[in-house]
Write a structure and sequence with these properties.
The complex is a heterodimer of chains A (258) and B (303). Chain A has 12 helices and no strands. Chain A is globular. With 303 residues, chain B is α/β, with parallel strands linked by helices. In chain B, 38% of the residues lie in helices and 27% in strands. Chain B contains 11 helices and 15 strands. In chain B, strand 10 and strand 11 form a beta hairpin. In chain B, helix 4 packs across helix 5. The longest helix of chain B has 18 residues. Chain B is elongated. Classes of the chains: A mainly alpha (258), B alpha/beta (303).
Chain lengths: 258, 303
């Protein structure tokens, strides 16, 4: 059973080869660090003094702040839809369901691929931050990135925190992507819910709202409210588990498959 | 009597519109046969095949494969079946070989099997090309290769020659016959073309408006067809010809210079011709009218 799940997950990885989801992961991860480094290259006179004291912490924070407010949830919405869309676009759901696989296997193996792509995007994002900062320092010797050690602990903790912040969105978007054949519908709903999040971002109960969990770490008022971040993490977990169970039940009990 | 490898009992099915798609369908596919599942578009062929593969939730009736209930033994049964439903299900961004690898991992078969099935469907040359550059015929063959990957006992093919050019149709037909003859596969193949089914099937099931109108061996179907067949004769003098034939060959229909007489046998047709000529009637043309699917339906339902 486990061996079969591993092999089927491997097959799901093979399906994502050369797809838009694969390229989006690479390009999406590079976008913010590259744009940020261009900023540093364009105005060294302004940024060298700013980045003098604790350059790594500042550049990591700058990049992740820019990335996680809009880009990260947007990437999750897109990549989830694209991975599921591979089956709809190629008319292959029927072949998947007609193969000797359990419903749990079909449901989870693809979800594992989505999460692996998201984790890869996180890792690549960090690699691009380090690489672009190093490149900037090579061009302008005035920057002090090479004089300071990389704060691996901070980088790891922030990455982990942000990865957990998108769990709820992955479950909701996965359900929507499985539910609707038309790629525009889950994407449209996801973007609409994300925009709604920005419209209600001053709401004191924002911790209930799954599409804003990655943003709240960088929205100053929320860090000051005691227990807010913790509440958000609890609700994130609840959303993730409940929606994932509903999505599985919905898929497994569907009258028409493929 | 051969045992049935696929069997449906009192199968009913309706979509949300409540219109019955399948009505008391009792299908029996004998082991080792090529079962031609014949019917016009919208007759319920694909619905039946999708039910047999578990792609549609059964509403009423029983489906058994290899003598076992489908619902209770879905995984074990699907392990022994290869399928191609409607259009080929292929990942267009992957190569032919990568497509096979995806399913090889699922079926956990030996790596060598990929080359074997590629050879069987004659796609070795195109194995490393992306499937989006394949012709429809090549896609269809690759889909059959996928269906064969795990060496299943049963193949379920839904209109595998649909959209193919004459060459592709012949190739696919020959492949189906070869798989049955040389590899002993039981094949359930649907089609809306009577002539196509006659060329490859050993057994036939005819479905119309969700009901199975006929089921049996190809010979039985041919007997039924010949029973309803007619001989069309073009002559110079219709009135005289009618008089000559009156006693032995009752004329069914007269159409200009043509007469329609029931077909009995080749020998009787020869006798009919001799009789006309001996009595001075010139016979310009004589032919057995072919039954198409539409006529066959009319005849079967009229019985």
């Amino acid at each position: 059973m486990v061996a079969s799940f591993i092999l089927n997950t491997k097959a799901e990885f093979l399906k994502s080869k050369r797809t838009a989801a694969f390229w989006l992961t690479i390009v999406g991860a590079a976008f913010v660090p590259v744009v940020n480094s261009l900023r540093l290259l364009a105005r060294p006179d302004h940024f060298i003094p700013v980045f003098e004291k604790d350059p790594w912490k500042l550049i990591i924070n700058d990049n992740w702040e820019a990335g996680s407010l809009f880009m990260l949830p947007m990437y999750v919405i897109l990549v989830t839809s694209l991975v599921v869309q591979t089956e709809y676009k190629n008319n292959t759901w029927k072949q998947v369901y007609a193969s000797p696989r359990t419903m749990a296997d079909i449901f989870l193996s693809r979800f594992v691929v989505i999460h692996t792509l998201i984790l890869s995007a996180f890792m690549l994002f960090n690699v691009f931050i380090l690489f672009t900062a190093g490149t900037v320092n090579l061009v302008y010797k005035g920057y002090t990135f090479f004089d300071h050690p990389v704060p691996w602990g901070t980088l790891f903790a922030l990455t982990l925190k942000l990865y957990f912040s998108v769990l709820a969105i992955t479950a909701i978007q996965y359900w929507l992507s499985l539910r609707f054949k038309n790629f525009i519908i889950p994407m449209g709903i996801g973007i609409a819910l994300l925009i709604t999040g920005f419209m209600i971002h001053q709401w004191d109960k924002l911790y209930c709202y799954p599409y804003m969990y990655s943003a709240i770490f960088f929205l100053p008022p929320f860090e000051k409210i005691p227990g807010f971040i913790r509440n958000a993490q609890v609700f994130d977990t609840i959303w993730f588990v409940v929606i994932l169970l509903i999505a599985f039940w919905d898929m497994a009990t569907r009258k028409e498959k493929g | 009597m051969q045992s049935s490898i696929i069997e449906t009992r009192r199968l009913f099915f309706a979509f949300q519109t409540r219109q019955r798609i399948l009505n008391d369908l009792n299908l029996q596919v004998p082991a080792g046969s090529i079962y031609g599942f014949l019917g016009p578009n919208g007759a319920g062929k694909t619905t039946t095949l999708r039910l047999i593969l578990g792609l549609l939730k059964k509403q009423e009736g029983d489906i058994t494969l290899f003598g076992r209930n489908l619902q209770a033994n879905r995984i074990d049964i699907l392990r022994r079946i290869g399928s191609l439903i409607e259009q080929p299900s292929l990942y267009l961004h992957l190569t032919g070989k990568e497509n096979l690898e995806v399913f090889r991992l699922t079926y956990q078969t030996n790596k060598n099997r990929i080359d074997e099935v590629l050879q069987l469907v004659q796609l070795q040359q195109a194995a490393h090309k992306k499937v989006k550059s394949y012709s429809l015929g090549m896609k269809q063959r690759l889909a059959i290769a996928i269906a064969l990957l795990h060496d299943p006992e049963v193949l379920i093919l839904d209109e595998p020659t649909n959209g193919l050019d004459p060459n592709g149709i012949i190739e696919t037909r020959e492949l189906i016959k070869q798989l049955n003859r040389e590899w002993g596969k039981t094949i359930l193949v649907s089609s809306h073309l009577l002539a196509e089914v006659e060329k490859m099937a050993t057994h036939v099931g005819i479905i119309h408006k969700g009901k199975l109108l006929f089921q049996g061996g190809l010979q039985q179907l041919q007997q039924l067809k010949s029973k309803q067949s007619a001989v069309e004769i073009e002559v110079n003098d219709v009135t005289r010809a009618q008089q000559v034939l009156q006693e032995q060959f009752p004329v069914k229909q007269v159409n200009g210079t043509r007469l329609l007489v029931s077909f009995e046998s080749r020998e009787r047709s020869a006798l009919l011709n001799k009789l006309l000529v001996q009595q001075g009637v010139d016979v310009y043309q004589m032919a057995v009218t072919q039954n198409d699917l539409e006529n066959l339906f009319i005849q079967i339902t009229a019985q």
